[in-house]
Write a structure and sequence with these properties.
The chain is α+β, with helices and mostly antiparallel strands. The chain has nine helices and four strands.
Length: about 220
């Protein structure tokens, strides 16, 4: 059975959403980030990103990771592209053209958006107030105005980025763009992005993933 390693409160959420969306059975191993433990190598410590058994799966010591029928894969967006193609159906590319577009949008999310969206999340919500860098958050907002305009123009055509339907590309993008949610001004300036993300988050599979995430210890 396909196995997903990583807690919900990590980028493993992307893979779990995809699996639920595609109706793929999977085994979940909740590997936690080593930095959240006082001594990740202590006897009896919860399996974490420095645990020897996990490092056999991903020597980089990062979550998520995936095992499936002898294939071991890391990198959350690549895992989703693989899982979607394995599952087939509307989430997957219908042809080589769509395959290239889905890959391109996933790389775009990782390179053009995520370096900035993650800083908005950290410095507006996730970090304790005393540790937040307001200047970095504002710089990240400014850096995202161009990419948000690009995505908004793409979504204006059909409401989706590939094939006029909801696909793995939307999941990969949505899981990166949602980090910027605290910067409401970005979404007000990009109404198609705002409507699209709202629609993505209204999907039952996303709601189930988030409900399970909320049950997980912070």
């Amino acid at each position: 059975m396909l196995t997903i390693y990583g807690v919900y409160r990590s980028r493993a959420s992307r893979n779990i959403w995809l699996a639920l969306e595609a109706g793929m059975p999977f085994r979940h191993v909740p590997v936690i980030q080593a930095y959240s433990l006082p001594d990740p190598l202590a006897p009896g410590a919860q399996i974490n990103t420095r645990s020897p058994e996990f490092l056999k799966v991903n020597p980089n010591g990062r979550i998520p990771a995936m095992e499936d029928d002898g294939l071991v894969l890391a990198e959350s967006l690549a895992i989703n592209l693989y899982m979607a193609k394995k599952a087939g159906g509307p989430l997957a590319p219908a042809d080589l053209r769509e395959d290239a577009q889905m890959t391109a949008w996933s790389i775009w999310a990782m390179t053009e958006a995520e370096p900035h969206t993650i800083q908005i999340l950290y410095n507006m919500v996730a970090k304790p107030p005393a540790e937040r860098d307001a200047a970095l958050a504002q710089a990240s907002i400014e850096a995202l105005r161009g990419p948000f305009a690009v995505l908004d123009a793409a979504l204006a055509q059909t409401g989706f980025v590939v094939g006029g339907r909801f696909t793995v590309a939307d999941i990969n993008l949505a899981e990166v763009i949602r980090y910027a949610a605290p910067a409401k001004e970005l979404f007000e300036a990009a109404p198609h992005v705002k409507a699209w993300l709202t629609a993505c988050h209204a999907r039952p599979a996303f709601k189930q993933m988030m409900a399970d995430r909320d049950k997980e210890a912070a």
